[in-house]
Design a protein that fits this description.
single chain; alpha/beta; Rossmann fold; 2 domains; 4-stranded mixed beta sheet; binds nicotinamide-adenine-dinucleotide; binds magnesium ion
Length: 398
């Protein structure tokens, strides 16, 4: 039977890769709803090709989209607006699968709505899980949602874990013979830059990732290694494991997407060419497998696999994220909010590259941590952390 898919963040890098997969399997999947925050022209093209029933955009873009659809003679698409619209489509009874591919905290409530509606949720929007942690995981359990990782590392770990791993009860300790998770990192575009060089790197350099083509925010996160920090927190929640069981391994070729070590001395790795279509297809079809256009690995041309430890002096963001996870409570939400603000300021050239981790550290030190007891308390702390981070940026600018 055909599955009906809702793609939150369809104009982004993950959204586009998702469409690519769906296009290859028209008999298995149909597009029910899509959302975009900007790039309305591109959204118009997507509407023309995929004919979703509903489209969600910011209220300020509704007119523009309406005109565009009229000009393209498309007249049977419903347009909804803002967060309320995102939530409506994410929990809609006609939707089977939700691709959560909005970037940042903006994706939290729609993703949670999909989880609470018991959907198959393909999680790309790691910030949503970093912020809400236990609340999101508990909601998935309570509402029998299938929360499947799209982040390539977590998808790889999921593939290397025992089949029933997500179903068994755990207390933060690895189970079923699992000993350790090895979370791989490419190291980003500045892997071999010294501290002096890092002081002057530009947004354009930071957004030019050696192996992956991604949105701007995650590209900067990959350059600071905050992406790996967020992924460390994401892994702890997804696989219900304490942070000291997750080791970060720098692997510049991005061929191994992560590994799981077992007590018998086995290390299982998932490998493939670095293309997000593979994890997206895996999460869409799991436990089955569907075809993608991604070519199989050619190990004769890709003969080297290198590994090294991350340098926490040049890339302190990873250390901050690990500390935030260890402390727990609202700390990961504070870390995430400060990072979103700092990355936006770096992209606007208001602060330098090394200031990003500085702003995050300052914010962690100046916003009171506490128990993450509800989504409201998380959102309040998110707002407060954004204010503190913005103030710090103003200080750094003057
Ligand atoms: P992107 O910037 O390319 O796309 C983001 C999408 O979210 C766009 O469709 C945009 O319109 C929408 N959006 C942005 N701000 C919004 C807001 N305030 N409200 C509603 N919608 C908004 O980002 P991306 O690279 O596709 O990444 C999306 C998510 O997936 C991120 O959380 C990222 O960390 C994660 N992820 C991406 C990759 C990758 O290879 N790109 C890999 C793993 C995980
Ligand atoms: Mg990743």
């Amino acid at each position: 039977m055909s599955q009906s898919v809702c793609i939150l963040g369809v104009t982004g890098s993950i959204g586009q890769s998702t469409l690519k997969i769906l296009e290859q399997h028209p008999e298995q999947y149909s597009v029910y709803a899509v959302s975009a925050y900007s790039r309305i022209q591109e959204l118009g093209e997507i509407c023309k090709q995929y004919r979703p029933k509903v489209v969600v955009v910011p209220a300020a873009k509704v007119d523009e989209l309406q005109q565009l659809l009229k000009a393209k003679k498309i007249n049977n698409i419903e347009i909804l607006a803002d967060e309320a619209g995102l939530i409506t489509v994410a929990e809609h009874p006609d939707v089977d699968v939700v691709m959560a591919a909005i970037v940042g905290a903006a994706g939290l409530l729609p993703t949670l709505a999909a989880v609470k509606a018991g959907k198959r949720v393909l999680l790309a929007n790691k910030e949503a899980l970093v912020m809400s942690g236990d609340i999101m995981m508990q909601a998935a359990k309570d509402h029998q949602a299938l929360l499947l990782p799209v982040d390539s590392e977590h998808n790889a770990i999921f593939q290397c874990l025992p089949q029933n791993y997500l179903q068994i009860l755990r207390n933060g300790e690895p189970q079923l013979g699992v000993q350790q998770i090895l979370l791989t990192a490419s190291g980003g575009p500045f892997l071999n830059f010294g501290l002096e060089q890092l002081k002057t790197v530009t947004p354009a350099q930071a957004c030019k990732h050696p192996n992956w083509s991604m949105g701007q925010k995650i590209s900067v996160d990959s350059a600071t290694l905050m992406n790996k920090g967020l992924e460390l927190i994401e892994a702890c929640h997804l696989f219900s494991i304490k942070e000291h069981f997750v080791t970060v391994v720098v692997h510049p070729q991005s061929i191994i997407h992560s590994m799981v070590q077992y007590v018998d001395g086995s290390t299982l790795a998932q490998m493939g060419n670095p293309d997000m279509c593979t994890p997206i297809a895996h999460a869409l079809a799991w436990p089955e497998r569907i075809q993608t256009h991604v070519p199989a690995l050619d190990l004769f041309t890709q003969s080297r696999l290198d590994f090294q430890e991350p340098d926490l002096v040049r890339f302190p963001a990873l250390k901050l994220a690990r500390q935030a996870m260890k402390i727990g409570g609202l700390a990961p939400a504070i870390l995430n909010a400060a990072n979103e603000i700092a990355v936006a300021a770096f992209l606007k050239q208001q602060i330098a590259f090394l200031d990003i981790a500085q702003v995050v550290e300052h914010t962690l030190n100046h916003v009171q941590n506490g128990v993450a007891e509800s989504i409201d308390s998380i959102l309040q702390t998110d707002q407060l952390a954004r204010q503190v981070a913005s103030q710090r940026i103003t200080q750094l600018e003057s």
